[in-house]
Amino acid sequence: xxxxxxxxxxxxxxxxxxxxxxxxxxxxxxxxxxxxxxxxxxxxxxxxxxxxxxxxxxxxxxxxxxxxxxxxxxxxxxxxxxxxxxxxxxxxxxxxxxxxxxxxxxxxxxxxxxxxxxxxxxxxxxxxxxxxxxxxxxxxxxxxxxxxxxxxxxxxxxxxxxxxxxxxxxxxxxxxxxxxxxxxxxxxxxxxxxxxxxxxxxxxxxxxxxxx
Length: 212
Prior knowledge:
This protein is of the alpha/beta class. The two termini are 28 Å apart. The chain has helices spanning 3-13, 21-24, 27-36, 51-60, 75-84, 96-104, 116-124, 135-138, 140-146, 166-171, 186-190, 194-209; strands at 15-19, 41-45, 66-70, 88-90, 108-110, 112-113, 131-132, 177-179.
């Protein structure tokens, strides 16, 4: 998927669910349960050896899902993610080499930033979206303050978001959010409790929708 189209889709879907190793072990069931709850953007993280295979599995299902890669730390991971069919790439850090590589491939790459200096550097090097990571460290008030000098900021806060604070981040001006462990509960996965996962997804979807 071309970068411009992926950007539109990511912002339209608002919530991107971070799927780490435990979720990837049951990736099709987890994604289906989340989809039943109204969530359809998935970030498959590359600290897991299952990541490339998991992306391929989700893409092969042919659903109206946006499937990307996360925790991409280097060029090797980025190349593997693109070859697997990733629609976008999230990084926990700012890496100019990765940004330039993704631009050459017309692939959306969202770098992680925390400071105004990192934000400016990311924008100067072609980032259309950034993520504040770890977002819970400084909270929604930090995002609101950051939008003062950067009113056009399109940011997806990630790290420590939950149903308790997601609405606060959206009201602070988040363009979307990334949510992992608080949403994709390990006990639900172990117990194959897909109904509970669907209900949690519906809860988050409703909260985010209420911010508009």
